[in-house]
C-alpha cells in the first residue's frame, strides 16, 4: 500500500511535492494475482468512507462473464456501463457482470452499507475460472477515520454476507420464557440424534456461516469423544419442535470439531463446531449470527449487559417446549455468581466461562444446551432501541445447578456459559 503523490512544477517557484485532492491508497485484494488492484480515497466525510474502486486487468472477451462475491453487503457500480451489464443474485450472494464488448479491464465502484463496513472481495470468477484464490481483507480498515475521533472498523463473521440481522419484523431454555415467532431468531438451530428411524432432539446451536454451526462440545460427544457425524442432524429455520415450520432446512453433518482441551467432567472448553455437508440457504428464516469480540463493549448502552437465550428446553412443567422460547438475562459478576452457590461454581467457573441469569425462576434449562447467548449491538453506539443493529453470539449454554429432586436444571440458579470471546481465534480458523 502506498500514497499517490503528484510532483508539481510551477513557473517561478522551485519544484514542490504535494498531495492533489485526498490521498489515494492501493492494495492487492488477491495475494496471488497482481492484475487485481483496489484503490481507496481517504479523507471522505463520515458515512462515505466505506467505498473504493476495484480494477481487474486482463483480456476480457465479448460475452465473457465475471462473478464477484464480497464478505459483506455491497453496492457495485460499473464505471463503464456501455461495455457490460451488472446484476445481483440474492440466491448465490454474488454479482454477475456480462460483457457485450471486449475490454482490457473491468473497473467497478464498491460501496458498503450505511453502517460503515467495507466490503472486501472474497471470490472473482472469470468465465468459470477462479482468479482470486487467495483473497485478503482489512487492508483499508486503518484508513477509516469515522465519527467523533474514532477510527475502528472490524469485520464480523460470517464471511459470506451481513450477520446478526433479522429479515422479518420482530415483536417484542427456557423457564418462564416468552414465546417467539418464526424468523425472530434465524441463527438458532436444532440438533437431533438419528438412530435408524428414531430422531431425537438434544441441543441447540448457532449458525455462523453457510456451513458452520457453533454449539457445546457436550452436545456432540460421548465421554469426551466426538460422535459419528452421521448420527447428528441439523435443522435450520426451526420454530416448532415437532413439525409445522414455514421453511426448515435440514442438513447432514460432515465434520465435528471438538475443542482439543474439552474436559467432559468439568465441562471446561465446552465448545464445538459442526461443519455441514451442504450450504445453508439464507432467507427470512435462516441467517447467521455475528461473532462477539471485546471491542463491541464500547457500542453497548450504559448499564448492565443483557443477552437473549432461546431454546426448546424444559419449561416450568418440566417438559420440552413445543415452540421456541426466549428470555433476556443479565451477565452477572464472578463474585456474585460464586456467592450464590460457592460449592458448585467454585468447581465449574473459570476464565473461560461466565455467569448469567436472574436466579429467580427464569433460566436456561435442559435442552437449551449448545444454544447461544446473543447480545444486540446497535449500529449507533449507545443506542437503546433495537431499530438498527446486529446480534452477536457472546456465550454458549453449558451447564447449571441440578435440582435436588430431579436430574434437571434448578431455575433459581445462575447458568454457566462458555465465553465465546476466549475462543474467537479458534473459531475463525475454521470459518469458510
UniProtKB/TrEMBL annotation:
Signal peptide: 1-16
GO MF annotations, alphabetized: serine-type endopeptidase activity
Keyword set includes Flavoprotein: no
Pfam families cross-referenced by the UniProt entry: Trypsin
InterPro entries assigned: CLIP_Serine_Protease, Peptidase_S1_PA, Peptidase_S1_PA_chymotrypsin, Peptidase_S1A, Trypsin_dom, TRYPSIN_HIS
Domain Peptidase S1: 174-432
Compartments reported by the entry: Secreted
Domain of life: Eukaryota
The name this protein goes by in its record: CLIP domain-containing serine protease HP8-like
Gene source species: Spodoptera frugiperda (Fall armyworm)
This protein's encoding gene: LOC118279385
Amino acid at each position: 500500500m502506498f500514497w499517490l503523490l503528484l510532483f508539481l512544477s510551477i513557473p517561478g517557484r522551485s519544484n514542490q511535492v504535494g498531495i492533489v485532492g485526498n490521498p489515494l491508497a492501493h492494495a492487492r485484494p488477491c495475494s496471488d494475482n497482481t492484475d487485481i488492484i483496489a484503490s481507496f480515497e481517504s479523507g471522505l466525510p463520515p458515512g462515505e468512507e466505506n467505498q473504493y474502486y476495484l480494477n481487474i486487468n486482463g483480456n476480457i472477451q465479448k460475452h465473457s462473464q465475471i462473478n464477484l462475491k464480497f464478505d459483506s453487503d455491497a453496492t457495485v457500480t460499473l464505471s463503464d456501463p456501455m461495455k457490460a451489464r451488472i446484476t445481483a443474485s440474492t440466491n448465490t450472494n454474488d454479482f454477475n457482470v456480462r460483457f457485450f464488448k471486449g475490454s482490457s479491464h473491468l473497473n467497478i465502484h464498491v460501496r458498503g452499507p450505511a453502517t460503515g463496513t467495507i466490503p472486501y472481495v472474497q471470490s472473482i470468477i472469470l468465465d468459470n475460472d477462479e482468479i482470486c484464490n487467495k483473497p485478503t481483507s482489512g487492508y483499508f480498515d486503518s484508513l477509516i477515520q469515522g465519527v467523533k475521533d474514532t477510527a475502528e472498523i472490524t469485520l464480523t463473521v460470517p464471511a459470506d454476507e451481513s450477520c446478526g440481522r433479522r429479515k422479518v419484523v420482530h415483536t417484542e431454555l427456557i423457564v418462564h420464557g416468552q414465546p417467539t415467532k418464526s424468523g425472530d431468531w434465524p441463527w438458532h438451530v436444532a440438533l437431533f440424534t438419528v438412530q435408524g428411524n428414531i430422531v431425537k432432539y438434544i441441543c441447540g446451536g448457532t449458525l455462523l456461516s453457510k456451513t458452520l454451526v457453533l454449539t457445546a462440545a457436550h452436545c456432540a460427544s460421548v465421554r469426551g469423544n466426538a460422535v459419528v457425524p452421521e448420527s447428528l442432524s441439523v435443522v435450520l429455520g426451526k420454530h416448532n419442535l415437532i413439525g409445522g415450520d414455514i421453511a426448515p432446512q435440514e442438513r447432514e453433518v460432515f465434520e465435528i470439531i471438538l475443542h482439543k482441551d474439552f474436559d467432559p467432567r468439568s465441562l471446561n472448553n465446552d465448545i464445538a463446531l459442526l461443519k455441514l455437508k451442504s450450504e445453508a440457504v439464507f432467507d427470512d428464516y435462516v441467517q447467521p449470527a455475528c461473532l462477539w469480540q471485546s471491542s463491541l463493549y464500547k457500542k453497548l448502552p450504559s448499564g448492565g449487559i443483557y443477552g437473549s437465550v432461546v431454546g426448546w428446553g424444559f419449561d416450568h412443567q418440566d417438559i420440552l417446549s413445543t415452540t421456541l422460547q426466549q428470555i433476556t438475562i443479565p451477565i452477572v459478576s464472578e463474585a456474585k455468581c460464586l456467592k450464590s452457590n460457592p460449592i458448585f461454581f467454585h468447581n465449574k467457573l473459570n476464565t473461560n466461562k461466565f455467569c448469567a441469569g436472574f436466579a429467580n425462576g427464569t433460566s436456561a434449562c435442559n435442552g437449551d444446551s449448545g444454544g447461544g447467548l446473543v447480545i444486540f449491538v446497535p449500529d449507533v453506539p449507545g443506542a437503546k432501541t433495537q431499530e438498527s443493529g446486529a446480534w452477536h453470539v457472546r456465550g454458549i449454554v453449558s451447564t447449571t445447578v441440578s435440582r435436588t429432586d430431579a436430574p434437571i436444571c434448578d431455575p433459581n440458579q445462575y447458568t454457566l456459559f462458555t465465553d465465546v470471546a476466549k475462543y474467537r481465534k479458534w473459531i475463525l480458523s475454521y470459518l469458510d
